[in-house]
Q: What sequence folds into this?
């Protein structure tokens, strides 16, 4: 039954002449706000780098594996922020690389509340391995042979690569207690025509609120809604942090999975930098749980605060006037 993974891929390819390319998903989405919303760039007032690796649907042949790197930094002199996102996603014979550069301008609304308006420009590149095979099953689930493409002319029969331009926009409202963001990705709906793939436009809503339960305990609920107007996915998360160091939480993905998580944050003695590590495990709740033993995800983040320059001092001595 492990070969069913490649069968599902073949079905996806043969579904139509143009197939919508979907964005990868992460269970620890609250630590990946930049790739979702370019308005987030520079909002942390620190130079931050975040890496996430996800192994999805363990037990499938050709299972999805996704790797992400986000880097962002503020430019306070012009009330702006910049960032970069790199994705690498592989599923069966197909792999996709996505590079985006982000820019955001931050507007002070009131007090500590600011609004980041951001854009991102980038490139999507996808390739199909020439050695892939599809297993053809009859109605009884028996393998009837091996072929490439199951006879569908829309499925490439050998190695294929394609690239397209990519653009996104986002608005991100935030202060130390909460954040709310809306964004639209793949605005130009790029066409990977050599592979019969159409990149679908995606819409996102994200929000979170920090509740200080006690001086040592903090509760943060988070929500992420994503849609390509053909399907919509809802992720809900709650995380409890102790002493700004250790956190426990769980994410529920509607009709798909429930995922407990654990993490640790270490602040270096200088007080100017912090290292954050997190792990989550998805228990599949859909019918895929008959074939998959779940999904693993690892997150690593490092932030370096930008020190404020010392104020200029003028010293006068009347002896030298």
A:
């Amino acid at each position: 039954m492990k070969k069913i993974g490649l069968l599902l891929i073949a079905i996806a390819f043969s579904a139509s002449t143009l197939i919508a390319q979907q964005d990868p998903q992460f269970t620890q989405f609250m630590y990946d706000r930049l790739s979702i919303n370019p308005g987030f760039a520079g909002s942390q007032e620190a130079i931050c780098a975040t890496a996430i690796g996800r192994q999805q649907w363990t037990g499938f042949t050709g299972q999805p594996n996704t790797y992400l790197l986000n880097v962002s930094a503020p430019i306070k002199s012009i009330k702006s922020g910049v960032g970069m996102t790199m994705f690498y996603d592989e599923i069966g014979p197909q792999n996709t690389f996505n590079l985006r550069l982000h820019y955001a301008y931050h507007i002070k609304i009131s007090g500590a509340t600011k609004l980041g308006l951001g854009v991102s420009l980038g490139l999507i590149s996808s390739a199909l391995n020439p050695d892939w095979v599809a297993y053809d099953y009859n109605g009884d689930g028996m393998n009837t042979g091996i072929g490439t493409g199951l006879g569908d002319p829309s499925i490439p029969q050998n190695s294929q690569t394609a690239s397209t331009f990519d653009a996104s926009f986002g608005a991100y409202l935030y202060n130390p207690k909460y954040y709310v963001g809306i964004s639209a990705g793949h605005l130009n709906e790029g066409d990977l025509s050599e592979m019969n793939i159409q990149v679908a436009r995606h819409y996102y809503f994200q929000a979170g609120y920090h509740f200080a339960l006690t001086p040592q305990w903090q509760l943060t609920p988070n929500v992420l809604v994503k849609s390509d107007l053909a399907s919509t996915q809802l992720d809900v998360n709650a995380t409890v942090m102790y002493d700004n160091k250790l956190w426990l939480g769980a994410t529920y993905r509607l009709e798909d999975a429930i995922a407990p998580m654990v993490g640790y944050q270490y602040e270096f003695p200088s007080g100017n930098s912090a290292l954050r590590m997190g792990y989550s495990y998805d228990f599949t709740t859909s019918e895929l749980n008959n074939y998959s033993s779940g999904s693993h995800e690892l997150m690593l983040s490092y932030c370096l605060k930008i020190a404020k320059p010392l104020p200029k001092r003028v010293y006068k001595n009347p002896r030298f006037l």
Summary: The domain at 4-320 is CATH 2.40.160.40 (Porin). The radius of gyration is 23 Å.
